Amino acid sequence: NSIAVLLQWCNDKGIDIRKAVVLSGVSVDITDETVYKVLDGVGVFGHCKVRGRCLEPAGDNQLVLVETTNDMTKATIPEQLAFGGESGPWVVNVSETRECPILGERGSFQAKFLSFLASEGKTLADVSGWFGPTPAPPVAPDLNTKLVDAISSLVEKCQATPMDGLGYRKLRLFSGVKPTPPGEEEYDAWAEQTTHMLDEWQCSDIVKKQRIAESLKGPAADIVRCLRVSNPSVTADDYLKALEAAFGTTDSAADLMVRFRGTFQQEGEKLSAYLFRLDKLLHAVHRKGGAEVADLDQIRIEQVARGALSHDLVAMRIRTMYKLKPPPSFTELLRDVREEEEMILARQSVGNAALPAMVRCVGCWNHLRISESLRFSDSGGSEEKRNHTYVCGLQNPEQENNS
Predict the structure, then answer these.
(1) Farthest CA pair distance, the chain
(2) Every domain range in the chain assigned CATH 3.30.70
(3) Which domain of life is it from (predicted)?
């Protein structure tokens, strides 16, 4: 009915229901100016404003919501407004709760709510299940939390910002010409550096391709140029794959792994030098796709324990050290190997310096091991008796000559 429409309409529009009326039976061709003219002619509404229109549920006429400056009750307003024409008269509808006693803010609200439920044919029991427990208001974040979040967001943005325009270390030159010209790198060394730098550069793939192209000349540059012409959407990794196919080893990943497993420490070779040889082969296996980055450390330490000389003191120490520990990285392993090598070298130097002096005697005397103790008198300054012990068991050489 019109009263229910009035209550719902006022709630949606945020209008005080005491200052609102709904006109029913209004033709759809009636303008707001005509409505204002009719209402002003009555004089009880005060200043009016049309706040909404909608079609009646039954019929071709419309309902018009009007906000007034005066309080509206059935006792103060006419039930109908006369309007000349075929569409009149208009019925004036106000809320019936205006006749209820005012019981303060809460009582007034309850009366309005109960009146609305009655107009809709509902009771409190019908709507009690619609309302759950009131959620607790969100706790305002602490100022320190806001500051930390802001700093974290700023750091993430700075780290994610590409550094295309910043200075960078250029790659070494590579042309693929044999023998390697002065000032250029062999392919293995160049590919090793380039692969490492591609992981370090925080820039777009376009910039990476430009930096690779800057380091190439001769046949290597021709290969990249032809690849770019045939497929403009190639990536920096595609550049490296094409160069690997042209200048890298022709061995497959499986062949390189067999060669890696068959590389052993040579007699007289330091373990650190053997480690460098192994790592070069291991990275060649990785470039061919024969090993993942996460598995390189485990593969390396297994081959060091397997391929090092059995009597190498440093290798024995490394085997014991990492038997029950996670596999070390290349730098950690190389550091431990060098420290052990330096320690063993220092011990040998100290041992050589502590050897007794070796002398050659007269005639039949060969190398003698001498242990002597000298003691000087503070008063006379004369040298006391020297005690000599000889390996061959003879007496003092001077006494032997005199005899």
Answers:
(1) 167
(2) 2-118
(3) Eukaryota
